[in-house]
Design goal:
13 helices, mainly alpha
Length: about 350
């Protein structure tokens, strides 16, 4: 296949993954507002799509971490990135089908690591392990704990504030406030997750350019040439639109899991969980730390539930979710590694 056409195919795969991130992780931004019945599902996905898109345009720190700091671009090809995206797409669809709120971010990490290791042969230095440890592993372990503790702390504080209020008054006040917190969560989701695939798309264009694949690039395709790694405006807009479209389609299976099955929520609980998770995503996004939206909102919901009482949670469902988290990076890494090894024409394509 012509290098330019192959690069376009890789970018299409990145957008397809971003789309699956949107419908897979749509629940992360809107499950609580649907679960508390503040908005209908269609109203919620419309709000989520708009705020996702706006959030995706507001930063590049996470995109730079993903595209420039984790993988040695000299040791991979555009085919490497295609295998990573195919693995991530497959995992997102599988977990969406079973209604399991696994992390699209970790599917992305696992896919790119597995495909890179396969493409680089025995050179394990293709993965920048110190950066991976400090920017991926440590935040991955810390963010669920912070989300859980933060959700419990915020909910405990709100309990003190609402104690003198009548239940109907509480629902009315926090039903309105939850419109703000849901918008904040949707924006933060776009800000955090939208940047991740921007980094991958920019990396694909940069790798193709530095390998000389785009020497005879038609004039009208010059936007694909990246003499240096950067997040261009068209990359931001295309990834933001793909995520917004995926969000609008909606992830009803996972919304059901987070918003209704795991713990019974009222507007005040939804407000607490969304505010906690969105703030954590905003702070880490500014620091360039690509944490999981799924882990953050899910543990915030758990913390909010436990602030009421520990048996308020569906612990059997929680265990199932945790196993999904543990399996995501190894599963997608193995799948991407296998694709790059078994289909060398893809794994080494330039």
């Amino acid at each position: 296949m012509e290098p330019v056409l192959f690069l376009l195919l890789v970018n299409l795969a990145v957008l397809a993954f971003t789309y699956t991130n949107g419908f897979h992780d749509a629940a992360n931004a809107i499950a609580t507002v649907v679960g508390t019945r503040v908005l209908t599902p269609r109203q919620a996905v419309t709000l989520g799509a708009i705020t996702n898109f706006l959030g995706a345009l507001c930063g590049v720190a996470v995109a730079t971490t993903i595209g420039a700091d984790l993988i040695d671009s000299r040791l991979i090809t555009t085919g490497t990135i295609l295998c990573a995206m195919l693995a991530g797409i497959a995992w997102n669809i599988l977990t969406w089908y079973y209604g399991l709120p696994s992390s699209s971010s970790h599917a992305l990490f696992g896919g790119i690591i597995g495909a890179a290791l396969a493409s680089a042969g025995k050179n394990r230095d293709v993965v920048q392990w110190p950066a991976f440890y400090h920017k991926i592993i440590l935040p991955m372990l810390a963010s669920p704990v912070i989300g859980f503790v933060g959700g419990m702390a915020v909910m405990t504080l709100l309990f003190l504030i609402i104690r003198p209020m009548r239940p109907r008054r509480v629902d009315k006040v926090f039903g309105r406030l939850q419109l703000l917190s849901a918008s904040y969560m949707g924006w933060s989701h776009g800000f955090a997750d939208g940047q991740k695939t921007m980094g991958i798309m920019a990396l694909a264009c940069f790798v193709a350019t530095q390998d000389g694949d785009l020497r005879q690039l038609p004039h009208w395709l010059n936007f694909l040439s990246f003499p240096r790694f950067e997040i261009k405006s068209w990359v931001q807009c295309s990834c933001g639109l793909a995520m917004a479209l995926g969000t609008y389609i909606g992830g009803w299976r996972i919304i059901q899991t987070l918003g209704r099955k795991m713990v019974r929520l009222r507007p005040v609980h939804g407000f607490a969980a969304e505010t906690t998770a969105a703030t954590l995503l905003l702070v880490t996004g500014k620091l360039g730390l690509p944490i999981s939206t799924t882990h953050t909102i899910t543990t915030a919901i758990m913390g909010v539930g436990c602030a009421r009482r520990f048996n308020a949670l569906n612990w059997e469902l929680v265990e199932r979710i945790l196993w999904g988290w543990v399996m995501t990076i190894p599963a997608t890494a193995l799948l991407a590694y296998g694709l790059a090894c078994l289909v060398p024409a893809i794994g080494s394509a330039r």
